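[retry 2/3] Phage integrase family protein: previous attempt timed out, resubmitting with same input.
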Amino acid sequence: MARFATKSPEQQAHSVEKALQKSDAIDSVRTLLNYTERLEQVAKNMPEFGIQGEIRDLTPETAIQYLEARGQDIGQKTLDMERQAIQSMLTHVTGKLEQGERLPVIKSEHEQALSSRAYTAEQVKLIAESQTDKHALSTQLAYAAGLRAHELHTLSRVSEKQASERPVLDSKFQGREGVIYTVTGKGGLTREVLIPNKLADKLEERRLDVPQQTTDRGVHYEQKYEIGAGQKWSNSYTQASNRALSWSEGAHGLRHSYAQERMNELQNSGFTRDIALETVSQELGHFRPEITEVYLR
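[retry 2/3] Phage integrase family protein: success.
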C-alpha cells in the first residue's frame, strides 16, 4: 500500500540517486544527475495528480498514470526523460520492473495540442465518409465529445463505471442533449462525456457481448464496444484526412474543434469567458483551465 510522503522531494530523489549509484546501473554522471533532477520533479508533482506516497512507491501502473497526466504540461523530450528516470528506478532500485521491461512511451498532449488545429464540421464529415464504418463512428464520437484516441477504448455506461470525484460546474454540457457515458483519460481520471442520442444508438449497436482485452502503445484496456480506438484509429483518421482533404492535422485536432465550438456556445449563452473556459476544461478532462487555452488558438 502506498504511504504518504514523509521526505521532501529532494530527499526522495537523492535517496534513489544513491541507490542507483550502488547498483552501477548508470555509467554517466550527467545521466544520473538528470535522472535525479527529474525524479525530484516527479515527487513534487505526484500529489497534484492524485498519486500518494513517495517516488519509491510508484508501480508501473501508477507511473503510466503519472506520465499521462504530466504529458498535458510538458513537451515530449522532458516527458521521455521523466519516463526514463522512473523506469531506471523501477528496474534497478525497487525491482518493480524486470530487467529488459520498459514503460510505454506516452505521447505529450501538450506537444500534440501545440501542433494540432481544429477541423470544421464539414471537414469531419468528409473524413468520416472516407473511413470504414468502425473508424467513422469513432471519428464522429471523438468530434462530438472531445475524446482522445485512447479514451475510445474506455467508453463505458455510467452504471458500469462512475466518474472520478472532481469539481463540476452547473454549466457542464449545458445546451447539448445526449446520453452520459464515462471515459478514463490522462492520469487515470474518469470523467463523464455526453454522446448525442443518434451516436449513442449507433454505439450501443456495436456493444460487445463480452468485453475485449486489448493493448495499445503498451497500455492494457478493457474495451466494451467494437469501435476504432487508439493508434489504429488515429492512423486511420490521418490517412482518411489526407484522402479527403489532401492534408491532416491529426486526430487530436478534433479536441481543438470541440473546445472552440463549446467556448462559442457557452459564451453565446451568456457565460463569462472564465466560466466557459472552466466548463470546457472539465468536459475535456484537463487538470487546469490554462491547459485548455492551448486548444483555443
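[retry 2/3] Phage integrase family protein: The chain has a mean pLDDT of 93.
[retry 2/3] clearing retry counter.
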